[in-house]
Amino acid sequence: MKFSERLYEKVQPIWKKNHEHPFVQGMGNGSLDKEKFRYYMIQDYLYLIDYSKLFAIGTVKANDLKTMGKFAELLDSTLNTEMSLHRQYAKKFDISEEELENAEPAAMTLSYSHYMLHVGQNEGLAELVAALLPCMWSYAEIGKELSKIPGAAEHEFYGDWISMYADDEFQELAKWTIDLLDDLTEGKPEHELSRIEDIFLNTTRFEFMFWDMAYNQEMWPADE
């Protein structure tokens, strides 16, 4: 069994909750409150800034030019394609560039992104990939599933989001990252695999918590 297959089996209970979350379901059937999605866009924009840094760190930690080049491609895709989508959405929801740039991260946004950056900066390349993969992999899965709902990909507000993550290019980038983790973990002893699995599970849990944060528009508990 490939290590990614082991991880996939392990996270199914959490990913099922991701797919069934009212935020995700609301994007698919078009019922999601626009204010919730507006909040999500701002927080995800802040998250993507730190997420992009992981690809930059991956470029530094990679041991061959091919892998370095792919991380650079992922960095470009995140900084330009994904963040461009956020800026386009910002116009639909009357979010100014000034509001995006001056927004404050929620507690969950900080916790999630800082955990990934801590792993990326202090551990090896396999650990870094395990930290960033749940976001990419789960978005590819969610985008693919939601795109099967009639009319979802054409929805005025959520169709572009669904189409981007269901797109073949994003699906291929996700697959490359999965394959890279399999290559990096091949032959590693169980104690190292267990540590990498824990990292993957942690960021998978953060993914669910991020959907929940967006749905409830949470910032800091002490401020509510």
Please tag this protein with its features.
224 residues
Q: Could you walk me through the main structural features you see in this protein, from its secondary elements to its overall organization?
A:
The longest helix has 28 residues, at 34-61. The protein has helices at residues 3-20, 22-29, 34-61, 65-92, 97-102, 107-122, 125-146, 159-166, 168-185, 190-216. It is an all-alpha fold and 224 residues long. The mean pLDDT is 92. 80% of the residues lie in helices and 0% in strands. It is built from ten helices and no strands.
* Terminal CA distance: 46 Å
- Largest sheet, strands/sense/barrel: none
Report mean pLDDT, rounded to a whole number.
Answer: 92
Write down how many β-strands occur, each being a DSSP E stretch of 2 or more residues: 0
**Residue share in helices?**
over 70%
Give the amount of beta strand, in percent: under 5%
Order of helices and strands: HHHHHHHHHH
> From the helix content, strand content and strand pairing, which structural class follows?
mainly alpha
Overall geometry comes to: globular
Assembly type = single chain
Low-confidence stretches: none
Tally of helical segments: 10
Compute the CA-based radius of gyration: 17 Å
Short description:
Helix content is 80%, strand content 0%. It contains ten helices and no strands. The protein is globular and about 50 Å long.
